[in-house]
Amino acid sequence: MIKEIKILRQHGVQYVPDLKGAVLNPLFRGRPIIKEQPSESEREMLIKLCPSDAIITESGFGIDIGKCVFCKECALSCPDKIEFTNDYKIASNDKDRLIVRKGDTEIRFDEASVRPEVRKLFKNALKLRQVSAGGDNSCEFELNASGNVNFDMGRYGIEFVASPRHADGIVITGPITENMAEALQICWDATPDPKVLILVGTDAISGGMFKNSPAVKREFLDKYPVDLYVPGNPAHPLTFINGILRLIEK
Amino acid sequence: MKLFLETYNNSNSVDLKDIPVLSYEYFANMLKSYFVDSDNHCLSYFAFKKDNKLKFICAVAKDSNSKVYLSSHELKPGVTSLRSLTPEFPQLHIFEREISENFGIEFEGHPWAKPVRYPSDRQDKEKVMNNYPFYRMESDELHEVGVGPIHAGVIEPGHFRFICNGEKVLHLEIHLGYQHRGVEKLMLQNDNSLKLCVLSESISGDTAVGNALAHAQLMESLADFEAPDDLQIERCIALELERIAVHIGDTAALCTDVGYQLGQVVCEALRTTIINTTQFWCGNRFGKGLVRPFGTNYPLNDSIAGEIKKILSDSGKRYFDMAERIYSLPSVLGRFDGVGTVTKEQAYKIGAVGMAARTCGIKRDTRMNHPFQFYKKHSPQFVIQESGDALARGMLRYLEVKESVKFVLELLQKWESTDKTALKPVYDHKLKPDGFAVSAVESWRGELCHFAVTDDNGAILHYKVKDPSMHNWFALALAVRYQEISDFPICNKSFNLSYCGYDL
């Protein structure tokens, strides 16, 4: 007993008091910024370098953080043009807003397109069922961490549950493998309406490194609207929690 | 006649043509002479198509003298069956199954000829995930329990099928493949080798550093490049930080499963401090981006070294206090002691590696047996447990963290006196043509191998990844026999094997 009290004292207070204002260390690879437009030759080089085709050149230069694997190699090779900031609030409900262009100072959220029932019903309690469909388990670790003693998203009534029948929505990680497609569909069908669909991690949002693999089957995403995109490789717990808070307007 | 080619882990690559091609009978006899000695085990046995033939390469590691022996045999087109060697050498079971699934070779007499992961390019498309041929026992007294692919927690998918007599498990069959993303095929994109680094890190997020290192080492072998001391030390430190973080996280998970909440929350918080240190170093909590071939984007500096020293000393001590408490509580010991036992004999037979081997008294650790990077010059002590049960697997983690913390602090001291080369990564390095290279690292789970074969232009022709779980999933199936089904979560957690590393 005495030993346990000693351990508890060492343990101290672990929770992050302000989940919206916490600051991550400067090296954390969050939202990129484009400081200057890269030159034509630099663009060519960046397109060739980027492992996940996240460099956009249509209607101006941009980086699609729904495709980005946050390896930062583009910024390392063009340090005066591109930089990765430690801004972790990079989730959005609109896929197009995940494209970062010169002058952008935040990843914007499309308030108008949030379904009213999402905010009405899930504001005070949101129970989610997670489905890993080819995830590399780093996003799964971070989702678990979102509920641990440090991040404790349970304080907002957000929680992962064991059964889809108890859930208000599904959180998908991974590029959605062919071998997991049927199980994912069954899980979605078992979740009662109304429900939200959340994609966590670059693999889930765009297929990431696996988007051209024949082992991946993403038709599920053609059928249902996505309520929230949470980019990252993996998505940081603070990115996930702040994205959800934004979605349920908390 | 030459029967094998001798090489070493993390050394220069070899010429593919120097690997002797044996007749199948000679090949089988060769394996017999290897496996008569329990000191030898199979690193990997795989096949690939080259010049219209199917070429099979087997890499056997001898633990006592650090050598790796390579032998091969070939099949002409049209020949689709071979005598299975699994009845004689059970550790080959998973590799023969894999070859059979990928190339349609029938291994006659294989006792467990079943699909491995249903890859998208499998030979027989009639075989699909939901008609997996589960083992059945017909009896009115028995019942089956199916679990998964989606599990109760936030974890990866896999299906477990139990045959039970009341509460007692008679048999467990593990059906995987849900995570299959086609990694090995994607590793053949020769246009941009940065892709391969990022892919390696995505093989298994909990082993991002291990896989990135195995890949970097492989590329360097194929380019006859040896990393300078400072880079080698940094890589070893990164690998040990990954081990420490996961072991502490596993301790938390084990506590959760036996309802010891203090152990759970304290270890969760301590794991956070370790992965945040990795983030402090490279900007990613899992170390993604930290290890690259031929150099690094994140060389260690005094401020990072100081942070690692501080966190390891502080969190290390707190973890040791906690672990000593955990493993002295009767209520915890009662749930672990004697549960899910794997015997030393079983472990040898299935070719167990890493923690699954070391908890059965087998001295098998790539860092010492087949040293790579700076482990060649300085290595930690073996940590061995004898009892093969869940308690041994829990204790091993505690003792390995202890050893790793001590070892990292020693490495940091050595790092201080090295010349700082701060080499940058290279993504377009020319690789040796018609070459073959072996790269093994001791990831926290155990022996993790990457292999590559190059063509006459030095482009990668075949890439093979072997996660330690390839050997060890079978250990879990053996561990739960005659156990209560309610002890399955403890057994599963105590092994913590990889789904995505196995499914690829």
Explain the overall architecture.
The complex is a heterodimer of chains A (about 250) and B (about 500). Chain A is an alpha/beta fold. Chain A is about 30% helix and about 15% strand. Chain A has nine helices and ten strands. In chain A, the strands form three sheets. In chain A, strands 7-6-8-9-10 form a five-stranded parallel sheet. A three-stranded antiparallel sheet of chain A has the order 2-3-5. Chain A has a two-stranded antiparallel ribbon with strand order 1-4. The longest helix of chain A is centred in the last third of the chain and has 13 residues, at about 180-190. Chain B is of the alpha+beta class. Chain B has two domains: about 5-130, 2-Layer Sandwich (Beta Polymerase, domain 2); about 190-470, Cytochrome-c3 Hydrogenase, chain B, CATH 1.10.645.10. Chain B is built from 16 helices and 13 strands. Chain B has helices spanning about 25-35, 95-105, 185, 195-205, 210-220, 230-255, 260-280, 300-325, 330-335, 345-350, 355-360, 365-370, 390-415, 470-480, 490-495, 500-504, and strands at about 5-10, 15, 40-50, 55-60, 65-75, 80-85, 105-110, 145, 160-165, 170-175, 435-440, 445-455, 460-465. Chain B has a four-stranded antiparallel sheet, with helices on one face. A four-stranded antiparallel sheet of chain B has the order 2-11-12-13. In chain B, α13 (about 390-415) runs parallel beside α15. The chains are: A alpha/beta (about 250), B alpha+beta (about 500). At the A-B interface, α1, β6, α5 and α6 of A face α4, α7 and α8 of B.
Layout of helices and strands, plus pairs?
The complex is a heterodimer of chains A (250) and B (504).
Chain A lengths: L1 H10 L20 E3 L5 H10 L5 E2 L5 E3 L8 H5 L4 E3 L14 E3 L14 H7 L3 E7 L5 H9 L11 E3 L8 E5 L4 H13 L5 E5 L1 H5 L13 H4 L4 E3 L6 H11 L3
Parallel strand pairs in A: 6-7, 6-8, 8-9, 9-10
Antiparallel strand pairs in A: 1-4, 2-3, 3-5
Helix pairs in contact in A: 5-9
Chain B lengths: L4 E4 L5 E2 L8 H12 L4 E11 L2 E10 L4 E9 L5 E3 L9 H11 L2 E3 L34 E5 L11 E7 L2 E8 L7 H4 L6 H11 L4 H15 L6 H29 L3 H22 L19 H25 L3 H7 L7 H7 L3 H5 L7 H4 L20 H27 L18 E8 L4 E8 L5 E7 L2 H11 L8 H8 L4 H4 L1
Helix pairs in contact in B: 4-5, 5-6, 6-7, 6-13, 6-15, 7-8, 8-13, 13-15
